[in-house]
Design goal:
The structure is a homodimer of 337-residue chains. Chain A folds into 2 domains: 36-150, 2-Layer Sandwich (60s Ribosomal Protein L30, Chain: A); 159-324, PurM-like C-terminal domain (Phosphoribosyl-aminoimidazole Synthetase, Chain A, domain 2). Helices cover 30% and strands 24% of the residues of chain A. Chain A contains 9 helices and 14 strands. The first copy, chain A, has a 7-stranded mixed sheet with strand order 9-11-8-12-10-13-14. A 5-stranded mixed sheet of chain A has the order 1-2-7-5-6, with helices on one face. In chain A, strands 3-4 form a two-stranded antiparallel sheet. In chain A, helix 3 (70-84) packs parallel to helix 4 (104-120), helix 3 (70-84) packs parallel to helix 6 and helix 5 (176-184) packs across helix 8. Chain A is globular and about 55 Å long. The two termini of chain A are 24 Å apart.
Chain lengths: 337, 337
């Protein structure tokens, strides 16, 4: 796994990504907040005021896809990193890298969708930056959104809260975003387009935190999909994640696309789903609250956390046979966000 | 000035940049904080707690230059946007776009300088993101740093505070960063390298705010240089900026480079300078405080704000003749930050 140059897999959310973070990126930055590997940082800003802070750069291609575009994806992605951390999104920054020759009407369309999406989510773009590079030095547009959120509770969420016996819950079907982008890139495919699941999750997370107790951790399974999210939580908690294979909700459309391209739905990105772990006594209530919302209407319990298999994700079939779910080494589908 | 596609000048900090912001970027985002055109936003995060929030993407080429690299520049640039807003920098985010094939030892060197620079400035990288794009879709590395700062005072700074009669002060010589990059890109130039002025300004701004009264606004004259900063402040305050041409400190080295390439030092970026406007009674004290520091050792008064020439920047020669200082329309020197 030792490379001298960056390869696409370093951006996959899979094993090479983790290797790059652990070997190259974290050591010189030397601080424990980053190494917590959450998608947001919690900062004390004086008194007992805490804020959540997150950042994401979007390099997706194509820029426009069924269900959204790079702008909606950026706003949702940043809001969701704050939301699954338990914060209420407050404000975004917007930083653009534009390639010389990029069409202004594309830029206008993307900004319109950023403005509209932000407004619908109750946040605003507070500050920004625009850079232009010469033709060939970027691919049209790259877009960074950082975000600030505030907390109205003093709960502690995170992998350290997870205990054996906790329920593993997902808020809906997996892989719609990844499958949508895979289809978009194939001019000759035989299927109807799949609509990305890109959606803001802050209303749902706030509802869950207000109505349910015993919530341990929430994550949005984006790059690397459900497999990468469960892996990270297994590794960070040093507990095992035991998932009933048949419980994992995969739509027929996504299953067909996976078959067509040889993809694994567990590895496909979601952009509007929550993976949640909670006290087993809260599990039914969490599913009920999720199902009462549009974005969580297909929520279900996937499995449970276990002392067996520390740091490992295991899928169990209905017949009781088990397989270890590994992270992909290379990138199955680059530039999906 | 109406284009259908992005041109390099849209990233210059000059007239085309302003046109892009006013016509394309601001309208769909529709909020007054962005239109304040400061390099940071002030956000209320509950109670009477305010934070400063800023973002910048760095696309500089070459990545390494005399006096720093893309990493030091990013940390300084983001800290300085917070500092000139009157805030104390607290934390940064770091978001990387890496091109497939980028050398890992370059990445390591950049991260090392980010870690070291952040530590020296008393901030830390709290959260991050890494994306990889295929060969040819980016130019090595682009790097976004967003920043959070806190306030320990209730001063209001900004162009609305500026009044006729206020003194215009600069903390040192102009154009070192732009001139350094211009020389770096020319293999055949006849001069010794010029060291970029890239430096953190938060110690200096805090010292000024603590020791001096009557501070109206502070800015760091980066893209577009002194000319662009004075223009923005003239436009935002609808007052005139009258500058004594001979007071503007330009080093001999920078003057030579400007002559060689036909550049105007007023348009060259600084990355470690402050332009400050204050009550004229505070001017001598501000200069004294600046000069007591290494980074402000060549501070001086440039001129004064006037009711005449609303919204315009005017340079006056020692013989009393005057010229209007215009913004460059196109990009004199792309990708300098």
């Amino acid at each position: 796994m030792h490379h001298e140059r960056i390869v696409l897999g370093h951006g996959s959310g899979g094993r090479l990504s983790h290797d790059l973070l652990d070997r190259v990126i974290f050591p010189p930055l030397d601080n424990r907040i980053l190494e917590g590997r959450t998608d947001h940082a919690t900062l004390n800003v004086g008194g007992d005021h805490r804020i959540a802070f997150t950042t994401d750069t979007f390099v997706i291609t194509p820029l426009f896809f069924p269900g959204g575009d790079i702008g909606t994806l950026a706003v949702h992605g940043t809001i969701n990193d704050l939301a699954v951390g338990g914060a209420i999104p407050l404000a975004l920054s917007l930083s653009l890298v534009l390639e010389e020759g990029f069409e202004l009407r594309c830029l206008e369309r993307i900004l319109l969708s950023i403005g509209k999406t932000a407004k619908n989510c109750g946040v605003f773009v507070a500050t920004g930056d625009t850079k232009v590079v010469e033709r060939g030095a970027a691919d049209g547009i790259f877009l960074n959104t950082s975000g600030i959120g505030i907390f109205d509770h003093h709960l502690t969420l995170g992998p350290r809260q997870i205990e054996a016996g906790d329920a593993i819950i997902i808020s809906g079907t997996i892989g719609e975003h990844g499958a949508s982008i895979a289809l978009c890139r194939d001019m000759a495919h035989p299927y109807a387009p799949i609509v990305s699941d890109t959606a803001p999750l802050h209303d749902l997370t706030q509802k869950i935190l207000k109505q349910c107790s015993g919530i341990k951790v929430m994550r949005d399974p984006t790059r690397g999909g459900l497999a990468a999210t469960l892996h990270e939580l297994a590794k960070a908690s040093q507990l095992g994640m035991l998932v009933q294979e048949s419980s994992v909700p995969v739509s027929e459309d996504v299953a067909s696309v996976c078959e067509l391209y040889g993809l694994d739905p567990w590895h496909l990105a979601c952009e509007g789903r929550i993976v949640l772990m909670c006290d087993p006594r809260s599990a039914e209530k969490v599913v009920e609250v999720m199902r009462s919302t549009r974005e969580g209407s297909e929520a279900c319990i996937l499995g449970r956390v276990t002392h067996e298999y520390p740091g490992i994700v295991v899928a169990e079939t209905d017949h009781g046979s088990q397989r270890v779910v590994d992270l992909p080494l290379y990138e199955p589908l680059p530039r999906i966000c």
